[in-house]
Amino acid sequence: MRHALAVIAVLAATPALADTDVSALIRDRGLAGAEIELAAIADPTASDRFGLGGVRFLRGIERALQTRYQTGLSPALGVVGVPLLRLPIPDNPAPAPFDPATVTTLFTAALADMEGAVAALDGIDSEVAVRIDTADIWFDIDLNGTRGVGEDMASVVSLGLGTQLPTITVQFDTADAVWLRAYAHLLAGVSETALAFDPTQAIGKVHAATDAMEAINAEAGAPFGTGMHHEIGPYVDYAAIVLNAVQVRPDPTRLAAARDHLLATVQDNRRFWTEVARETDNDAEWIPNKRQQSATGLVFPPDTGTLWLAVLDDAEAVLTGRALIPYWRLAGDAGIDLSAIIADPPVMDLIGLAQGGDLLPYVRHGRVMDGNALTMFSAMIGGDAGLFMVMLN
Asked: What b-and-e string marks burial along 79-96, b requiring 16 or more CB atoms within 10 Å of the CB?
């Protein structure tokens, strides 16, 4: 869970502006107010655009938390393991009536926010110099317009850690604009993938069944059901939703859009590591080059960029079909072509996929991914490999 939650600490380090104090702006007006003010700048500088992209990025996170809070999508979501759903937030004591379309609504809004962030960051062609104190970042989870207990960034992240995180000041620069755009593409890809499966029907089916059984319990004078229902029921329901949702034929248009966003993530990472290598300063860096130190306190080994780009090269090769996914029943140079699945996806029948029959149309001969790059990266980083993957996107 520490690695899953670390993503919000990463995301919360939004850039501040050289001309506009975005750190104070978010502190005083919240992310919604900051977005309005930054978007209204008539002739934005590179730092203005960087700030707007960062605020829109964080607004996507905030909106997802707000949607979950409003509809009671707080408990047990860690079992799903999907970004924007897995971060623990306080339960809403009086949520709105549940709507099965809530998750689809959440990812639709997140996709728009991430694409808005990309639009603001595209075309930055001059120097960016921004500074932010992460203590100023807060999420208006309960939508009351004021900063409440547990809504500051450190508290949101600490909900799953049991310890308060320190705040840091980070100096963001031109290379970090590309890093942020890569992250926006990544979460846009996640959103497109979720929308490709559109879990609305699966959610409605599971909740209808649960509501019916709770009505039976109420008739029997036991409105809270059994102890097991109370303790593990939400986890079972979320697992059932996931299993039901994936057993459909996903929308190929959405899958193709997700692939394009993920490929853009790889391309922006390459540009980021090229640009960050040129930096000569060493001032509160976010992700450092070999001559710098990170303001986060994390130590980045000298070969971090080289090995991470090798991992992303493998991911790009799989997404484009230049490398194949290994499968437990296939030997030699045979594997699964993910690009063929994206182009013409099958019905995701779990039994057929596990046994292999439904994957036969996508079997190809070629280079099968060996995972050596990821193994080397993980060995270099050690126990914090997951955290570094979250930071590097």
From this structure: bbeebbbbbbbbebeeee
CB 2 within 8 A of CB 384: no
221 domain residue, yes or no: yes
What is the C-alpha to C-alpha distance for residues 373 and 111, in angstroms, rounded to an integer?
Answer: 30
Altogether, the residues listed in the chain come to a count of 393
User: Does residue 108 sit in helix, strand or coil?
Assistant: helix
Q: Is the pLDDT of residue 13 over 50?
A: no
Predicted local confidence at residue 217, as pLDDT? 87
Is residue 217 domain-shared with residue 302, that is, in the same domain? no
Closest CA to 254 of 108, 103, 359: 108
d(CA 390, CA 201): 31
**Mean pLDDT, rounded, for 201-225:** 87
**pLDDT value, residue 162:** 47
The C-alpha atoms of residue 257 and residue 264 are separated, in whole angstroms, by: 11
Co-location of 347 and 245 in the same domain: no
Contact 266, 181 (CB under 8 A): no
Looking at the fold, whether 80 and 193 belong to one and the same domain comes out as yes
Contact criterion met (CB below 8 Å) for 98 and 71: yes
pLDDT digits (tens, 9 = 90+) for 121-175: 998 888 998 888 999 999 999 999 999 888 888 777 765 444 456 789 999 999 9
- Residue 338 sits in which domain range? 273-392
